[in-house]
Amino acid sequence: MNIFELKTDLDSSQVGHEMYALMEELYPLCRSITGNGVRESLALVQRHIPLEIHEVPSGTKVFDWTVPNEWNIRDAYIKNSKGEKIIDFQKSNLHVVSYSIPVHKKLSLRELTKHLHTLPGRPDWVPYRTSYYVENWGFCLSHTQFLGLQDDEYEVCIDSRLEEGHLTYGEYYLKGKLNDEVLITSNICHPSLCNDTLSSVVLLTFLAKHLRSLGLRYSYRFLFTPATIGPITWLCLNEARVSNIKHALSAACVGDPGKSTYKKSRRGDAEIDRAVSHVLKHSGKDYEVWDFVPYGYDERQFSSPGFNVAMGSLMRTPDSLSVEHHTSADNLELVQPEYLADSFSKYLQVIAVLEGNTKYLNKNPKCEPQLGKRGIYRALGGPHVRNGELAMFWVLNLSDGEHALLDIAEKSGLSLDLIKDAADILSAHDLLQECGREQHRRAVSCDGG
Amino acid sequence: MNIFELKTDLDSSQVGHEMYALMEELYPLCRSITGNGVRESLALVQRHIPLEIHEVPSGTKVFDWTVPNEWNIRDAYIKNSKGEKIIDFQKSNLHVVSYSIPVHKKLSLRELTKHLHTLPGRPDWVPYRTSYYVENWGFCLSHTQFLGLQDDEYEVCIDSRLEEGHLTYGEYYLKGKLNDEVLITSNICHPSLCNDTLSSVVLLTFLAKHLRSLGLRYSYRFLFTPATIGPITWLCLNEARVSNIKHALSAACVGDPGKSTYKKSRRGDAEIDRAVSHVLKHSGKDYEVWDFVPYGYDERQFSSPGFNVAMGSLMRTPDSLSVEHHTSADNLELVQPEYLADSFSKYLQVIAVLEGNTKYLNKNPKCEPQLGKRGIYRALGGPHVRNGELAMFWVLNLSDGEHALLDIAEKSGLSLDLIKDAADILSAHDLLQECGREQHRRAVSCDGG
Amino acid sequence: MNIFELKTDLDSSQVGHEMYALMEELYPLCRSITGNGVRESLALVQRHIPLEIHEVPSGTKVFDWTVPNEWNIRDAYIKNSKGEKIIDFQKSNLHVVSYSIPVHKKLSLRELTKHLHTLPGRPDWVPYRTSYYVENWGFCLSHTQFLGLQDDEYEVCIDSRLEEGHLTYGEYYLKGKLNDEVLITSNICHPSLCNDTLSSVVLLTFLAKHLRSLGLRYSYRFLFTPATIGPITWLCLNEARVSNIKHALSAACVGDPGKSTYKKSRRGDAEIDRAVSHVLKHSGKDYEVWDFVPYGYDERQFSSPGFNVAMGSLMRTPDSLSVEHHTSADNLELVQPEYLADSFSKYLQVIAVLEGNTKYLNKNPKCEPQLGKRGIYRALGGPHVRNGELAMFWVLNLSDGEHALLDIAEKSGLSLDLIKDAADILSAHDLLQECGREQHRRAVSCDGG
Question: How large is the ipTM?
Fold first, then answer.
């Protein structure tokens, strides 16, 4: 089955709506870096792909870190002296600082204010705040509501538990012909925030679901983990597997209307960097490519000098440029099916590039072969060459054992699709030999040129 | 004899008119990839240079190709039912599709139309068409004339022969001090088309004629062959000589008013690429440099991965940008003596760069030598250095065994002429030693720095 | 003592005035490439730093050159027939061509004119001219004055001596922890010319004076020599020391109002080139960086292929762009304390970069270390990372044994100050280990990564 054909057959608009529907289901759940919100979220994903769920006990040492206690929350509110709930966790899980310790007491506005978080510059939005590794508690609310608070005695209640338990993450491994892996990761720790990062949760789910039906060259691994402690835990428990990862993408912020933005891997010129750049360049849409920065999502851990995995990050509007980032405005209105579909399509094209980027040898390296007598060149000499013919000339010219198809696409300025088609036609006419493929029971090595 | 001096002595305007005169003689002959038109053309060239003529039998296997049957044509026409010749080969050899098989019959306009070729977008021009490797026949005419054709019975006659014979090509080898070769090629298969490629036929003729009188470092080879099958045949018969070719140019489209355009070799940074770029940069005229594309003229064969000869193509308006390309508008009006002369001058300058690009060693590498006491530096300290003095400082500074003169010219931004003059002055004062030249019966190696 | 802190403590404005005051003292002295003017100038410098004075006898062979005779002058003038001094050396030492041989005779205006130098394009300025290596004599005057000269008999007198003596130069060596040296040079041969090069004489004096109080990693060498013959003499007498010079700057033209201009070393990508570029890029002011040219100041000799010392030149307006260059307009008005202070500050920052550009190893290379538990990361997760935290992430990410701090600063776009601060914090928390530093009596090698 040819991934190149498949990706065009696919109705990605339909997939966009399916992704959005799953996101709507995930949206209300209160996720954090541990706890039942994560478990329930992974269960929803499992309805689409046979996700493996891992539970790692609190206190487990993972490199310089320790898996924290598990956090769960039932309810939280602030009541004024009349007993009116002025902040209610049931209305939005963003109202509680994630990992807040249990609290139930009365206090003055002045004391309460020390535990309140607002966004003065965006007075109608509720910020998202966390305090994972320092014990604390707090509430988030709109600045407008905050300004309306009277001098009063308030009752605050956070009915949470922070106790020994587990860190939960999901993993899906899809075996291909090679043990070499493509790794794609998403965080799953954010509560009611759509673009960051529910959009990537649903992207990975539907990518994995779609790839299952294909016979792929690479093996694929999809990780759904909490931020920072998640990839650290996975890396610590799977250190021996890291060398299998040949190409990696950290997914996040893939559902907003902004243009696609790719942040390169630490290596800067890895095959994944060139594959994504190629797809974006030929997408016909505006895009940006950024150099690596040791900050962001899972690439922070996978790109540490001890691992140096070639992991890029393919987003739409990066968090650092998004005004909605980590606020209540990152909601079901910001993310739309058409943008999810576009991201899905680009990820699939990147995978197609990785799958298709193999090396061939010109079996007839001295002068051009006579394409005409094989019926693959127009018979009547006209004034100009066509793109498909040019692609054949490029493939023949550069299939010298040093250039893979993506190299040829880059040098020619033609799309890999066209280059791959040319290679297929030439192979069918026995003018080209794929490197590494057995032929007549003898493997062809391309290193000798 | 110094090629640097010679090229400035030369009246290239005079040469331009001589080239044009030869082109006028060549223009009416009906050339194709084989046949008597090629023989007659080469005979005209032989009046200027002692060209060697090669005849390769039809059916000879040359790599993936076979030398085709020889094609010759005596006459061709289309008559209407009144017996009037409405298309007459005698008026223009472009009227017949090259390699048309013999035909003589009557047919309706509808049947005839299947064999007619026109240019609807340029209704007054006659296109040039060929069918070398698929047996067929056809006529080319202006679209205006085509639109005027009545429903009638037409008599078509092509009095051609396509039978065993030979492929004919011309070769001129000029021995220099070294066995290392500079190869310059032109196609000779096009009939009445001036820029593509009679312009390069006359360019090569007069370049060769001019170089004969000089004592050159490199050996020079000039090839006049039919397109595609010509260079393939030569490469097949001369495979052992290919490694001698150090620099190569494929010449075509050198007589039109457009700016000079250089298409780089497959290597992209070969010495020929740098030499041509240097000449164009210092020409004081507009120009373009293009990256390699595995299409075009003889570079298609010489740049195949099994040979990878460093062959660039120095043109004026490339065929792909020329509206006149492969039409009757590529005629004696399009090409003019002044443009031929300018191309001639640039080719000669490229040759001068290749001839002059040798490496020297500073015999006094610690600090500057005292130029003043040798009388080659102004005695009285003024405010600013002059270009000639700066050239001497550059040559002294970079003649460290790693930089040849063209490297020094590129780094300094000065012309190779100025750099070469500086090297000559410094050598004359024993401050510089040319690498590889015997001195006091001991060869100087520059590799040790 | 930390050079990074020191340079900000310093009141460079105060230093600018001290430099200017020394320049005022130096201005009237008649310096040349040899003679008492140089000795008196070096004596003024010695009041600030313990300069070592070297005297090299006339006739000493130094590579291709010979130390010339020593030149001294007491007086010079031109009188008209009325006995009026129309040109008087006592008013400006620029009036006499430097190294003029003794002369005392009467001659006509026509004969005199052969020995007069003016600047027709700048009619009020007096040019500066020399004739070191060809025996000659001459006067310089304004073109306006020249045009006013009557047909008359003139008495010319140059009371100079050109006889065996010495070439004098000053040297100051400041030992640091390493034998590796930073070399900074200035010419001291120009008479009453401020920017070229008294500005660099006073710059070197106060740089050396300031660095004396610091405990430096590198050793520093300051050279005050006459142009051309000075560095040639030093190089010839100190050839064995050249390999110790790791970074070098040739100082000149550092006191005018123009923007800073850096001319790169011959290597083009040496650490000194990157250090200066970094300082200028982060200076917040306009600047230019030029490629190397084998002309200029002491870099002409230090960059000769036999030495190839990594010597750049950090100037303000380069001589080649300065209209005042080598004229009486290069005076105490052109150079101002604030520009001297700015140059001083930039040189000091370059030294700080060189001192601080060491390599560290991330002791925790797998995943990020947990900065929060060490109190060096904000506890409460907010929306965006801060620059100081980003600097820590960059240092951790790139301290892999291949990147020194300047590499990290360049890759991150952050200033070396910020990167160095981050490295200090991380080192203090035992997360980083400086390469080459002993720890627990075991040297850490960083080559193994």
Answer: 0.92
